[in-house]
Amino acid sequence: MNSSLDERLEQHLAQRQHSLIRLLGLLKKDMDCRIIAKLQHRGYNNFKLGDLVLIVNIEPQGTINNELAKKARITKQAMSKVVKNLEAEGYIWTCKHASDNRASLICLTDEGKKLVICASESFQEIQQEYTSIIGEQEAEALKQVLKTLVSSLYAGIC
User: Fold this and answer.
1) pTM of the predicted structure, to 2 decimals
2) Cα–Cα distance between 85 and 20 in angstroms, integer?
3) Could you give the angle at which helices 110-134 and 20-41 cross, rounded to 10 degrees?
4) Which residues are CB-neighbours of 100 under 8 A, at least 6 positions away?
5) Tell me: the pLDDT tens digits for 58-102?
6) What confidence tier does 156 reach under pLDDT thresholds 50, 70, 90?
7) How far is 76 from 71, CA to CA, in rounded Å?
8) Which residues lie across from 105 on neighbouring strands?
9) Distance CA 152, CA 156 (A)
10) Phi and psi for 63 in degrees, rounded to 5?
């Protein structure tokens, strides 16, 4: 038995309860559970949470497939699968881009628009639930810290 290695392991285990990665992971899981519950409560029982990242990035006038994959931060292959699912469920429709034959334009159907609105309202409700726990000042401070991190990590992308 290596006591030095065991001591180091114990130190890491003691710190993990307060690690940023763990805390953000737990918060993400909570957000996911809350959004799923809210969407299901509103009748979206056939909707996959993973599809939400794509649908909320579609512009009102439509978005080109490559641009949508970038915005959603998913591969073109993953996006293709999600597009097929969303199209089969009636949330989006696709057509060839008018000036680029290689690109497809992805647009929201009326059902897709309703879903985006419902998801946005649900996000606001969840944000209010968190704000009621930590208070307005702390919620604003948290948003500012997260904005700083995101803008630094994704400079030029966001």
Assistant:
1) 0.82
2) 34
3) 130
4) 64
5) 999 999 988 888 888 888 888 888 999 999 999 999 988 778 778
6) low
7) 11
8) 64, 95
9) 9
10) -135, 140
